[in-house]
TrEMBL record:
This is ABC transporter substrate-binding protein PnrA-like domain-containing protein. Residues 1-22 form the signal peptide. The keyword Membrane does not apply. The keyword Signal applies. It holds the Pfam family Bmp.
Amino acid sequence: MRLFKVLLAIALTMLVVGTSQAAKKETKVGFVYVSPIGDAGYSYAHDLGRQAVAKMPGVSTSYVESVPEGPDSERVISNMARKGYDVIFSTSFGYMDPTLKVAKRFPKTAFLHCSGFKKSANMGNYFGRMYQARYLSGMVAGYMTKSNTIGYVAAFPIPEVIRGINAFALGLQSVNPQAVVRVVWTKTWYDPATEKEAAKSLLDVGADVIAQHQDSPGPQEAAQEKGVYSIGYNSDMSVFAPKSHLTAPVWNWAPYYTSVVKEVQAGTWKADSAWLGLETGVIALAPYGDMVPQDVRDAVEVRKQEIASGKYKVFAGPIEDQSGKVRIASGKTASDESLLGMMWFVNGVVGTTE
């Protein structure tokens, strides 16, 4: 009888320990989004990555959408940290400083900020080399335009957006040196009405392809209503403008998000800066519209493989700015540092960086 009690006690102890260990294995992962998830766009693409994380064993996820940049984001991020989240992804540029502040108060939590450049012992940053896909979409625009005027509805004049416009223009000019890119700033990330009106202003000056750097399909809808082409962003929004949509530079965050969570679970994660290119699968082009000829698709695919392999560099000189000044000399390639701080337009872009 005594032996039975001893064995029972051991079994109960093992059960308690096992239950405790199982409970500890759950990793809580939080995501903070600047816009509504909806069924397309920037936050939608991030949430597809979250959904992939949610399918991982021993993981639970949560998110808060439509969080303004600034004090509100600091409050939301702080709330997640206080609730014991193990990993928090803050997914907009304006969340950088708030994330850094919260990270200092919660040193045991892993924080990752998307599109910024600051980091700390427990805060890393990450982004994709979306300029590579922008270049490819610029090639498509260059082949498809007839007016040689491309309209670009741009969000905020920050390096990320300016870099993308420049890459788009370089891709455009690589196949159509006569074409120009006209830029209109909306100072919005997600405002369908404002972004649609900006696109209309570009259509009024002769643009027959509309590109964009925002989260809404507004610019593409404006293009379709005018009977011209469009190039989207973030996710495949072709359903909103099927007769207009040529393609779009898009995000696929699942590979990165799942890899980070695995590292946190294994105790091997370290804060660093990740800038992910075409070769990682994090960035890509959306499927082409039926109107894009096969020879155009083939030409873009060749260049895509060259960029992914490192054979071709988007920002390789000589590259001039709008004034004709050589910014990247022949035989030189722009450093990541210079790309991350890019605040000038290449020759062939019409507009100001402010």
